[in-house]
């Protein structure tokens, strides 16, 4: 037990010894909620602790400290609870009895009870590696089952819990704070418990208003008496709720902690974080709806599958673009080597020739040259008819290309325009169409 109260503990450092505490006779509404939650569950939870959120205005961070708790004990504890309670009361009521000491009281409690009572003095800074702080920061429940999981999580509190016989440690973020549950049994994850805990503590105002109080169960009374003189000091929030102190000095207040302040800001922060996570989840749902094949349902696998699907789509687009380039024939542009300024004029038209549609485009390039493109159905030898028309017009052919695609023929011809037709692009086109129609 010395390591739990030594100055090297990762939790709050110890302060001067506490005098023995007296407890209120009636449980607070929050205590009643915790008690009802444990008694309504089929699993056997040894204790429940609500870590309440407050603000440190000097260091500008949130602190999780004891808000309230309820101790239930184990299955096998019956008359032993009464015997331990009688021992501690005898120690308190008989000052002359030297045989009953504080050490005797500490020895008569179980390890789980001792761990629960010492938790009264603990506090955690939001953002550190402890399980309650991690649950508060992530807004997600943390469920540790078995000694290996408790040791491997890298948290001093989880390791202390395992040393004191805790086999299952759960931290659930709620509107009232972080609910910690501990059991000496192996309890698998249960989503229904998480939802029930959040619903039970869904009214943060009612749960937080009022000073925290220690559970009035007999086991909690005797545990708190046993920890007196050995554990760390309790901050002012806790000491005021204990219903008064017996003889002894008042525990010192921690610097930078003000009761009753900085509570609404964490609640608003939690709500904003919850809304952000809901929006993120909706976007993951939308992404899931458009990805056809998902290997697993976790977010990392969904993102990996989405990346693979996008790469597949991109490869398909590249393939289609290559096919389109192969099907498209670029115009051949002839430029004079003299470097003279080139002017280009496009004239296109379509007409019915020999019962089919013929499309003609005339492009004048530079001085005395023109490029003619003719698209027509591949019937009645359209290339021969085009060459005959060019011969009749005395147009000298410099370059010609023919492309046949199924029932369509595309003919590109570069010709030298005679002096009589230079600058008369419309006349050249009309002359060609007239001769092609006669063919």
Automatic annotation (TrEMBL):
Residues 303-337 form a coiled coil. One of its GO terms (molecular function) is DNA-binding transcription factor activity. Keywords: Coiled coil, Nucleus, Transcription, Transcription regulation. Residues 264-313 form the BHLH domain. Residues 227-275 are annotated as: Disordered. It comes from the Eukaryota. CDD domains: bHLH_AtAIB_like. Residues 250-260 have a biased composition (Basic residues). GO terms for cellular component: nucleus. This is Transcription factor. It comes from Dioscorea zingiberensis.
